[in-house]
Design brief:
The chain is an alpha+beta fold. It is about 75% helix and about 10% strand. It contains 3 helices and 2 strands, in the order E-E-H-H-H. Strand 1 and strand 2 form a beta hairpin. It starts with a strand and ends with a helix. The N terminus is likely disordered.
């Protein structure tokens, strides 16, 4: 077994920054291999959630640069979204598995052990972090869809305005032709009279 020592220290006397009298506390926790595995698993899940956050940030940057080359941005964003989906499904499955383990221990006498409480606290923290990250991702998707819809509306209006401008040019040319014809008719009428 491995011993892990955690210290919370305050100097004896009054802390100048807070004005609070402190004490020294030492907590010794016996660490066995199960807890080491729990912490390794938690670290792995936390790293995966961090990767998801990095992919989300990458997507944000991609969507900010939509104008340079839309097809390239769309292809890269699809790939990033697939990576996010894949990682999210893995994290979700791992969290579900850990929750089942916690629930199975909850029905045994070991439910009050420090290891059980640590596992439950770690699971709760990771689940909350995962929920926050995925909520942020979903909000980004909604925002992007709204921006894309607004862009499509602007493009459609631009197309309509361009068509209207072409129609006005055509009408202008037609009036010029009529003006020239009228002028020629006036000259011909003056010549006849």
């Amino acid at each position: 077994m491995k011993t892990m020592r955690m210290r919370l220290q305050f100097s004896m006397g009054i802390d100048e920054t807070t004005g609070v009298e402190g004490t020294a506390i030492t907590i010794e926790v016996e660490m066995d291999n199960n807890l080491n595995e729990v912490f390794a698993s938690v670290d792995h899940l936390a790293d995966t959630i961090k990767k998801i956050e990095e992919f989300i940030e990458h997507l944000r940057k991609l969507y900010e640069n939509v104008l340079p080359s839309q097809s390239q941005v769309l292809a890269e964003s699809r790939q990033t979204m697939e990576q996010i989906k894949s990682l999210a499904l893995k994290v979700q499955a791992d969290l579900k598995k850990k929750k089942q383990e916690i629930n199975s221990v909850a029905q045994t006498p070991e439910r009050h052990s420090a290891e059980s409480r640590i596992k439950e606290a770690q699971h709760s923290t990771l689940a909350r972090k995962f929920h926050d990250v995925m909520s942020e991702y979903n909000q980004d998707l909604v925002d992007t869809a709204q921006k894309r819809q607004a862009l499509n509306e602007v493009e459609a209006r631009h197309k309509e305005i361009m068509q209207l401008e072409a129609n006005i040019r055509e009408l202008h040319d037609m009036f010029l032709d009529i003006a020239i014809l009228v002028e020629e008719q006036v000259k011909a009428f003056d010549y006849v009279t």
